Amino acid sequence: MSQLAKCVYRFGRDASGFDVTEGSASMNALLGGKGANLAEMCRIGLPVPPGFTVSCSVCTKFTKGELGWSDIEDDVWSALSDLEERMGKKLGDSSDPLLVSVRSGAPISMPGMMDTILNLGMNDQSVLGIIDQTQNERFGWDSYRRFIQMFSNVVMGIDSDLFENILTKKKLKRGVKDDSQLCVEDLKDVVARFKEIFEEQVDAQVHPEVLVDGKVSFPQDPRLQLQLAIRAVFASWNNSRARLYRKRNEISDDLGTAVNVQAMVFGNKGNTSATGVAFTRNPANGDKAFYGDFLINAQGEDVVAGIRNTQSLDELSGIEEFKHVSKELEEIFVLLENHYRDMCDIEYTIEQGKLWMLQTRVGKRTAQAALKIAMDMCEEGLISKHEAIMRVDPTQIDQLLHPQINPDAQIDVLCRGLNASPGAAVGEVVFSSDDAVAKAAEGIPCILVRWETNPDDLKGMIAAQGILTSHGGKTSHAAVIARGMGKPCVCGCEALKIDAASKTVKVKGTCVEIHEGDIVSIDGTDGIVVLGQVDLIQPKVCGDLETFLSWADDVRHDEKLGHTIGVRVNADNPQDAQLALEFGAEAIGLCRTEHMFLGKRKQIIQNFILGESDDVKEQALSDLLKVQIDDFYQMFKIMDGKDVIVRLLDPPLHEFVDDPRELAVEIARLETEGAEEEIIKKKTARLHVIDALSEVNPMLGLRGCRLAIVHPELLDMQVYALAGAMARLIKDGFDPHPEIMIPLVSIDQELKLLRERCEKIIAQVEAEFGVALSIPIGTMIELPRACVCSADIAQHADFFSFGTNDLTQTTFGFSRDDVESAFVPTYLRQGFLQKNPFETLDKGVNELIKLAISGGRSTKPGLTVGVCGETGGDPASINTFYADQVSYVSCSPYRVPIARLSAAQAKLRSLDK
Ligand code: ADP
Ligand code: MG
Ligand code: MG
Fold first, then answer.
1. Are 273 and 266 in contact (CB under 8 A)?
2. What are phi and psi of 891, to 5 degrees?
3. Residue 685 CB: number of other CB atoms within 10 A?
4. Entry pTM
């Protein structure tokens, strides 16, 4: 391998204090985030325990079977010898041994998803060496038992609970609460028991490498320990929870993880030692304040695992032994923030008063925090306005629009915990991830209630509406993962006494007992728990978000930076239109009219469709006209001064009539009951008409503009209502801007004919009302033929609007409702599709769109082209639409803020290129 490519990179100092670091933050893809940032911290002079990183590309090749251990062995052993030389200690030495951690670290942070082993190098000999060096017998045995436990779990896959149970039993026997209260004899005994578990659990056939004299035994050779650990970390890249996490976060399976081998430092050497995690700003709300938890006399994972209750970082400076370290830490926080120009997440350990930095990365945060930090840092001059805009993930904005408890609601707070991840949720209590998954499958919202979550709970956290824990701080597993997912979470709610086995919770200080299936509400913004269902409301865009989006709008409208992409809304009723205006929509890009025919009005349209005589049909049309005029009047009034694109009736007519199967059943019933001949005859006639309407492929049948060509009186009615509403509004002193959009055109003649018909009606209304009406008439482009023949179609169109839902269906020949469950998931899994094409614009569909735009604009330069399908609110698709020179996107009301930000980011991104 050495000849092929460098696979190991050193970091930290040599024996004479000289920095020998080979990596840097820019080598993230090769060294993983942890490795690259450890190297970077060494470069800027921070105290980091020395070590080396085996690169991610080795992992990738290992996984694919292109490399084996023998190919990298030499490089690893020479890096180890070098580390031993730098530290002046040897792995496994019986008088002064080196111990190392073996840490995973991928290019994109996947907290808690892969594995880490601490204290590697411990064996029956070196434990004595450690004790000799530290003069601390307890520490020696405690470190050894931790190593056996982690090694057994990570390398051999032995259930950690087997080990925890032994510790718990020991503690019970001694009548003590914490591990730290166990004495030397206890720990020696624990080590012996742990080794027995190893011997019992490891399958000799699967792991012949740990056989001694034909018997499984805990490996004493530190090099064998290291080899097995490195390979296990590589393998952890493909464990099921890591795979699930990647899938959910759209992280490629090809990146691989690096392995960091690093000299150990010890936070568990007594009361002048500690270990902690910190953020340079508050990751929950963005406040500019150092934030974190620590534990005295503890190691590594203890803080995040919620094993003991942590202390808040603020308390560190108040403890005499840690005063100086606290000051040093704060200086480092500032240094790191300035260096990375972003909020950093930090892991550190204090060993007998000396501070060591173990990890840093740009910290994960809630949407609220992302927004505040970006805006604050811009104000502080640390980043530019454009950078600030790029710092907030548009999909995260969604979190800010999450439900909250109605402030007017009367609520009785049952108990309080930490406000770990914002938003409110209501659901049935479940106590395990499997139960959460089962509830979700039944469509029942649930709240996952746990003592603390662990990485195996990921699936349950995905399935639940919210997460509630009784233990752990704001940096605990539950808190970090929930924030990343944007799920409401209340953690560390100590009043809850959870008994997962009997599926009940008692609440301290009350006589309340909650059982599985009971409803609770949680609010992760305030950290409260309420018994029963509370009223939730949707928040408005206000405060920080409004200001931030106005920055985004400034960029979006700045013609010097590039063309402006408008943001419109798909709204069919006045309420949605009003909401969308509050969210900053500039116009209505799609107003569907079929929704106006539902409810009570269904009867009227049925009379039109099924009416036996012309009189009945005419009466139905005139009834429809009356209600439609009013519908349009209200819509155009709310959108005063703004465009409203109205799409003429689109769906196949049989969507409005009764289900023929139900009708047939009813007729059969009437017949057996001996109902009147006349009634049965009438129903049967109706059934025949409905049957005649049925189509084999309705989505490709009589719908869209084809309806208007076969039933022109429908179009006449709709256009008359639209123009009539406009005329009345003008007379009432308003400024209405309706436009007419004709759906599903594939042949230019269709549009030509229908346009002429619309213009005739508009002229008629103008004459009747005595007002001039200017109403642009355009078409939806949603069929491949329309894309290909767009130059012809544009002759008759004042605008185009891409209906990407139908265009995606017809381009792929996928029937959306059928394929989304039938095989799209399989295609995604197999990698045929990277994303669901109904959510994110597909490459092939985009080619058609580009063709259509260039054709349309070759006929009419500057032709307005919009997008009104699902993809109009998707950040990645908006990026593509910007490049396509689309004039605007139109999406559902809640996505309007996301689209505003995405459109600004698309422009800024295009400047970078
Ligand atoms: P994760 O990616 O899950 O955070 P880490 O590799 O950061 O895993 O390790 C887990 C814990 O072990 C961390 O809290 C870290 O501080 C601690 N740790 C890792 N390496 C060392 C070391 N060399 N000395 C002391 N503690 C360590
Ligand atoms: Mg961890
Ligand atoms: Mg870590």
1. yes
2. -145, 175
3. 12
4. 0.81
